[in-house]
């Protein structure tokens, strides 16, 4: 009788281990939708690139870039580029983001990143800031950043702004990805409001 009991225990352990492994895989997320559900995928299979725009509802510079990000989204959506508005500041609530989006227009792809999974991936420091991700060569639905930094050169520093941008760094980086070129990095730092992490 000992042998069957031992076999049952081994099988039970194997199923338990398998279940834990599956649970661990399911825990990999990219922040949360506004309804609280985890974001398990940033783009459908076959997407060319993912663009992250780190935003804050209470940052004037971030708010002024919303029209530009909409323009970029419309320009590249047909070519398989998915753009996300990412709200990374710790303490930002879904209700606050909903109110912000209502004021500036609803977005299809909006998420909260309180644990800074995407902030870490993109090395983001301020809002507004952007990143371009491409599918990782290792597969598995993961992404790697090929561009990190400012949207353009409109802001030279806090309080110092051009009438219009002369270098469109993010737009150029997206084009580089789509055309198979080496992605050129930004020619200056991102200017904006510091991202707030957990205390």
Automatic annotation (TrEMBL):
<protein>
    <submittedName>
        <fullName>Redoxin domain-containing protein</fullName>
    </submittedName>
</protein>
<dbReference type="InterPro" id="IPR036249">
    <property type="entry name" value="Thioredoxin-like_sf"/>
</dbReference>
<dbReference type="InterPro" id="IPR000866">
    <property type="entry name" value="AhpC/TSA"/>
</dbReference>
<dbReference type="GO" id="GO:0016491">
    <property type="term" value="F:oxidoreductase activity"/>
</dbReference>
<dbReference type="Pfam" id="PF00578">
    <property type="entry name" value="AhpC-TSA"/>
</dbReference>
<dbReference type="GO" id="GO:0016209">
    <property type="term" value="F:antioxidant activity"/>
</dbReference>
<dbReference type="InterPro" id="IPR047262">
    <property type="entry name" value="PRX-like1"/>
</dbReference>
<feature type="domain" description="Alkyl hydroperoxide reductase subunit C/ Thiol specific antioxidant">
    <location>
        <begin position="45"/>
        <end position="128"/>
    </location>
</feature>
